[in-house]
Each structure stands twice: as C-alpha cells, then as structure tokens.
Amino acid sequence: MTNLSESLRKKLKENFDLHVFKIIQKQVSKDGTKKYLFDVLDNNAIESVLMEYKYGKTICVSTQIGCKMGCKFCASTGVKFARSLEAGEIVEQLLAVERDENIKISNLVFMGIGEPLDNYENVMKAIKLLNHPKGINMGARHISISTSGIVPNIYKLADENIQCTLSISLHSSSNEKRSEMMPINNLYNIQELMEACKYYIEKTHRRISFEYALAKDNNDNLQDAKSLAELLKGMLCHVNLIPINEIKDGKFNKSTNENIMKFRDYLNAHGIVATIRRELGSDIDAACGQLRKKEVSK
Ligand code: SAH
What we know:
Layout: H1 6-15, E1 22-28, E2 34-39, E3 45-53, E4 56-60, E5 64-65, E6 83-84, H2 87-101, E7 107-110, H3 120-131, E8 143-147, H4 151-158, E9 165-169, H5 175-181, H6 190-204, E10 208-214, H7 222-232, E11 237-243, H8 257-269, E12 274-276
Parallel strand pairs: 4-7, 7-8, 8-9, 9-10, 10-11, 11-12
Antiparallel strand pairs: 1-2, 2-3, 3-4, 5-6
Helix pairs in contact: 2-3, 4-6, 7-8
C-alpha cells in the first residue's frame, strides 16, 4: 500500500496482522460438503467444513490447532496441541471459503477442531466481529457454540447476553461412562454440567442442544435412553443424536440404524425432542469428530 505514508505502514505492520489463508487442499464430498485445509501462515494448518442445508450454507470452524480435551472417540485428539486461534483467524475461515466459492454463508458452528470454551476470549471476539453490522453482520441466532463442558465458562457465556445456540457434547447420562469417553467429566461431572445448563437457559431463555453420539454396546441401549430422559426431564432442550463416526484406532463402533431409531423414538415418547443428525461429508473425513490437522511442511 504505497499510497500510505511509510510511518503509517510501519504502524500498521507493528499493530495488525493480515490473515489471508492459503488453501492447501480442498475436498468435495458426494453430498456437496466441502472440506478445506488452510495454511495459517506459521507452519500450522487447520480444517473448516462447508455444508449445504435447506436453510442455507453453514460453515464449521476450528477454534484451536489441536485440542486438549482428549475425548476418546474424536480424531482431533490425536493431534498435538499447537495453539489457540486468534479471533481474526476464526473469522478468516468464513471469509476464505466465501471468497473461494463466491457465496454468502448464513450460519456458523464452532464444531471444528478445538474446544471453543478453552479459547474463550478469542471466540467471544470472533462472535462480536461476526455479529457486527460493519463486520460479517451475521445474527447471533445463526451461530452455535459446542462445548465438551467447561462449566465455569458456560456460566460466563450465560452472562454475556448474546443469543447464540449452545450445544453440549453430553454423550452419556452416566458419570462412569461419560468419564470413560470424555476425560473432562472427571473435572466437571454431569450434575455440575446440568446446573450450568439450567443457569444458561434461565439467563438466555434459549433452548440448549445436547449432542449424543451413539456407540454400539456402549451408550445406545434403552436403559441409556431412559436415564437420559430422566436427566433432561423438564429442561428447555433438544437432543441431537449422532451416529458415532468410527475413527482410526478408535474403540467405539457405530450403533445400528435400528438402535438409533429406537433410541430416538424412546426419547420422543418420553417428552424429550430428539432428532438424528444427517451425516455429511463422511467420505472425505469431514463428518463430526473426523477433522484432524494434517502436518504441513514448508
Ligand atoms: N470441542 C467441542 C467442539 C468440537 S467437536 C465439543 O466437544 O463440543 C463437535 C462435536 O462432534 C461434539 O459434539 C463432539 O463430541 C462430536 N464428535 C467428536 N468426535 C465424534 C465422532 N467420532 N463421532 C460423532 N461425533 C463426534
């Protein structure tokens, strides 16, 4: 920008970063889902996924390079944690995909690599940039944050007074089983998590979405459905059932379609609204829990 004075250019360089990601790889699924591997310019790479729904285009963004949560069924777990993403790097994932596809994205989910509530300040800043009329101008109701359950930050989020959708990765209603799947449960157990969720609903009047990945002979029988219905009874919520995606070396297998439908029907018959999430992009490893940073060498 030689039309700016040298001193101003120096000031800009010292104070701001321009994040323009390079696309290292782009894969297109049979169902139209697209997965991007971006070069984030410091020898690291992240993945983002673009999905088409009836109501518009949704981007699934990463919040960290790697993840510290260690969920046993998730491919991001195998990735060494490098660092958290800055707010600009979170928003740039949307901008880079919009530029590449020449489209407008209407929804954003924080469901890629990383734990959004473990990168709280940058995620909040990114939401403000997404939200702002002079930024992306995306309504908060078009944004979903998914968390493995970092309880203190759920309280913090509830007090922010923003209208995002909160998704909780629950996956079991038994502390014993949940701790086996998700080490974070040893730090904040289901009862503490539910208290935080109730506070969130009370403050925001927003319905919480509970994610439940069904694994064969693990958390998918009718006894599990019964205890889940009891746990969520009377709560303003919705259950999103995900047929678990099998990952390399993972010990969890996908439930049968019959069990998945029985599980859903049990919940619906017992006052809990439950739907089965459509699987998108599984042929390009872009489905839930399949995202994994590839090593990039320059
Ligand atoms: N760290 C956040 C967001 C990223 S994961 C969280 O835990 O919520 C997005 C969702 O995909 C979470 O619900 C997560 O539990 C789920 N997920 C991870 N691995 C999966 C797998 N193999 N099959 C199905 N869902 C999975």
